[in-house]
Design brief:
The protein is built from ten helices and eight strands. The longest helix is centred in the last third of the chain and has 17 residues. It is of the alpha/beta class. It binds 1,3-dihydroxyacetonephosphate.
Length: 252
Amino acid sequence: MRRKIVAGNWKMNGSKDLSEKLVGSIRFEAESLDNGVEIVIIPPAIYIGDVLKQAQGALSVGVQNVGQWQSGAYTGEISSDMAKDAGCRYVLVGHSERRQLFGETDELVAAKVSSVLFSGLVVIVCVGETLEERESGQAESAVSSQVRTGLSLVAQGEWQNVVVAYEPVWAIGTGKTATSDDAQTMHAAIRSVLKDMGAPADEISLLYGGSVKADNAAALFAEPDIDGGLIGGASLVAKDFVSICRYFPAGT
Ligand code: 13P
């Protein structure tokens, strides 16, 4: 049975005040959820302590990025060991904003994935095609190559700590979502690449991200290969984020 996850990536948004109020209300609302979904809050690293305090063990917490090393003279970086020590369970790696704005390559993503798995945390590896790639019919091959290289260093016993998030770049923060059919097609393609790599593909959770809102979450989450969502903008509003979590079908 695959883990069902709805994760909120705050990106570079939030404050100490928001960390307390928002997470407090999400935790309160989440208490009435009975669909087995795991809620993950991924705030800027500096607010991890505040978020953990409010999460009170009822919500999981993650970081948005880590360096590929475990410690050392790397000013400004944090390591996956530190994320674990601080109480995180998840680490996001290879978000398209990291790839596009900070030049992260698939090889760097692979090194970070290794480091996260070495620390014993769960990695959420983000992949997704650009608009240009989609329009030129290259979407599947672009995503497939991100998956193959980004996950190339995962050892056989480590797959249970791997989650893949498909986030088409053109759908992030634009209000344009992939149709549930297109998202399902890509998720099925990712699963078949994972199978081909020798991974236990049917046990790996695949999340969809890119303008997921309360009004499109139900259709996306009803698809057989979509095991949850990675939410940006809507994760900053408790009511919207919890509505998205609610749309997860019970008993799946
Ligand atoms: P939006 O939900 O704001 O489109 O962001 C998606 C995303 O990038 C989550 O990581």
